[in-house]
Structures are given as C-alpha cells and as structure tokens.
Amino acid sequence: MSRLIVVSNRVAMPRETRAGGLAAAMHSALAENGGIWFGWSGKVSDSPGPPTELDEGGIKYVTVDLARDEYDAYYNGFANRTLWPLLHYRLDLVDYRRDTYRGYQRVNRSFARLLAPMIRDDDLVWVQDYHLMPLAALLREEGVRARIGFFLHTPLPPPDLVVALPGHRALMEALTDYDLVGFQTEGDRQACLDYLINLAGGSLTYDDYITMPSGTRTLVRCMPISIDRDLVAQQAMRASQQVTVRRLRDSLLGRWLIIGVDRLDYSKGLHDRFAAFGRFLDRHTEHRRQAVMLQVAPASRGEVPEYRQIRADLERQSGAVNGRFSEADWVPLRYVNRTYTQSTLAGFYRTARVGLVTPLRDGMNLVAKEYVAAQDPDDPGVLVLSSFAGAARELESAVIVNPYDIDGVAEAIHRAITMTLPERRRRWRELDEVLRGWTIADWRESYLTQLAATRNPGDS
Ligand code: F6P
Predict the structure, then answer these.
(1) pLDDT for residue 456 is more than 60
(2) Are the beta carbons of 431 and 12 closer than 8 angstroms?
(3) Ligand 1 — pocket residues by CB below 6 A?
(4) Superfamily of domain covering 4-226+441-453
(5) Arithmetic mean of pLDDT, 351-362
C-alpha cells in the first residue's frame, strides 16, 4: 500500500482548533495508510534549524520555520502579493518583484531538498495550492521518482490575464512536471489547458493527458473540493445547545439573522456586501429593526499592505452603515474580526435565515456548502451565492447573484428573507442532494485513485 505525503504551506497539527474540513480530510487520508504531512510551521525564526518532527496516530508531521527574509519574499511577497491577486483576477493589485520571485523559488527548493530524502518510490505525493507550484520539478531534480500530484484551491484565470505575470511560462510549465493536476471547476481546468496548448505547445490526448514538447505527460482534471456533510449537519444540531450559539440566538430577539463568514480578504467582496446590506435597509424600510447581519471576518495576512488597507476600509464602512441605520435598541451590522470553532460556526449557520456568500472570485468557498449542510431541513435558511464562487457551478439552487451588482444583492437579501417555506425547502433539498452526492471523502479518494493510476516516471 502506498504511503501518502501531503505537502502544503500550512500544516494542521493534531487537535488544532482552527483546522477546517480540508485538514480533517488530509488527517484521515494520512491515518489510513500512514504518511507524512510536510510544510511551514507558521513560525518565523532568526536562524531556522532542521525540521521539527512529531509522530502521532501513524502520521509524521514535519514542519520547518522560515527565516524573516524567506517569509517576506515567499509568503508576504510572491505568494500573497503576486500570485494571490493574479489568481483572483486582480491585476490591479499584482505587485511583481524579481527578488520575491527568487525567494519563492528558494523556499520551494529548500522544501524539496528537505523532503526528497523522506520519499520512497511507491509513495503518493500530494502538493496543495499556489504556494508550491514549482515543487514537482524541484523534487524531480532531487531524484524523486514517486507520483506527484497538485491541487489548486484557488481559481486559475484565462491566459490573457496570466500572461501579465513576468515569468508566467515557467510557472505554468512547472505544472506539467506533476503527474496529476486538479482544479476546482471546469473553467479553471480549461484556462490551464488553453494556456498550455496555445502558448506552450502542449497537446491534449483523448484521456485528458496534456503532453508537452519536453515529453512530460500530465493528467488534468476538474475535481471540486467538498465537505463532510453529515459531520457539519451533526455539529449544527448539537451546537444549538452551545453557550455561544445560544447567546447569539437570544441576542436576536426574534429578528432574522443574515450571516457572512470569510477570511478578511479583498477577494471576498466584503465592501460590496456591506454596501448591499445598506442598500437593502435603505430600500426596504419595512425590514429595518427586523434584520441583523453578522459578518465574521478573522484577520489574515496582516503584514501585506493590501490586507491592512481592506481592514481599515471595512472598519470605516461598518461604522458608517451602523451610524446611518442604528437605533437605540437595534444595531444592524455586527462585524467581528475573530475566529470561531467549526462547530460554533455550524450552530451560527443553522441560526441564520440567510447565508450571504458573495466573493468577487473564489476557488470553491466551503462556507457556502457548510451553510447548506447546517440547515434545519424543516425550516431551512436561504443561501445567496456569488456566481463567481466555484461553489456556484454545483449549488445551482441557491439564489445566485452578481456580487458587483449592489442593487441585485440587496434584492436577493429581500427575496431570501421573504421566501416561502415550500420554496426554501425545495431549494434546500436540491442543494443538500448535491452535498450528499459528492463529499470530501469522495474528493480525496477520487484524487488519490487517479494519481495512483497515472504513469509513474519510474516505470518508463
Ligand atoms: O486557498 C486559499 C488558502 O490557502 C486556503 O487553503 C487557506 O484556508 C487560506 O488560504 C489561508 O490563508 P493563510 O494561510 O495565508 O492565512
């Protein structure tokens, strides 16, 4: 039986309370056959030593600290000021610098050098996300012969946008050093194929392999990530007894709750969402005092200037909405920069009449799926979902909105709040059917089965 080696920027250590569904999926995959989870420790150190190892439950967690200059160039720099905005279609925010690109390569190379000696030929190596795009090529240089797969959790924009990145070709061709590359949506997969075929001389075979002039062969597939639907449903039911959830419910005094939960990130469309909520209160005076919006937005990437900026902007904007509409006994917008456990969030989702998920661009958005899974089947809430989230490709029975259309989102909130019980039930049943049909376990097993079935360079 092959061992699994997961590589990701962050490693979810056992019992970490922040860890979400992806972490749980990786833990159970690693626990099944034994394996290694390798990545950054989340710490910045003056003089990073050798990797730290922890063996628990058949899994070996191997983490490395980053030096300050590596953290700045790789994480704060190329990953989050260059690639992240590019992958989310925000060319206006792309800050390209040669030195941060070199730092990104350096950290990827150092990961490859540390990891390569731990990998056996019959292992399956699964690399996660945009921080580590060049890793397969660098592992091959270190002599690794095992199958290596990559999954991109973010969107991939079409070639017209990708070519704005200096060095785009090296980055995109690096994907063809993997045996399997997985994307969240068919659109992301098509963008990758369009680039590789039209700009890099690749050709697609009938069985979804892309063959490059250099001779590499890579299987390119769309495999949307999902959630553990039954677990979230159970958590939501149990959480209604939790103190935090009860306090939230009691504080509403029977008012409708509209909920948003997002990392504090410009891709999440929070500015437009607050504006839409304000427009809704403006237009539908009958709902004033009847609705409360809770936006949970834990701060993220706080050393990156664009993130400091959006934090300051949202503080101002939430204050403005409340200043304009609040009354002595009603504050319409609760804006909270903190994290809650998965089960508390599940309880919040079940309490909310409307789940507002309106990113300007998102790879998938698991909050959309979790909101659905957490609902009470007899009295479900309504999901209002951006057409620019990967989840919209599957959750077609949500109220789908264009997040740039402030009037449209304001009307969607009104529609969700006033929707009849039969319609809410019908939509929820259709959404829940989708979640039951494709869970996080299906995603993980399908990915690993396909990776195991790809050609092993060692076989050729
Ligand atoms: O895909 C985006 C992503 O890398 C997620 O996997 C993760 O939840 C999130 O961003 C966390 O970002 P950071 O590690 O930069 O806080």
Answers:
(1) no
(2) no
(3) 10, 129, 153-154, 300-301, 363
(4) Glycogen Phosphorylase B; (3.40.50.2000)
(5) 98
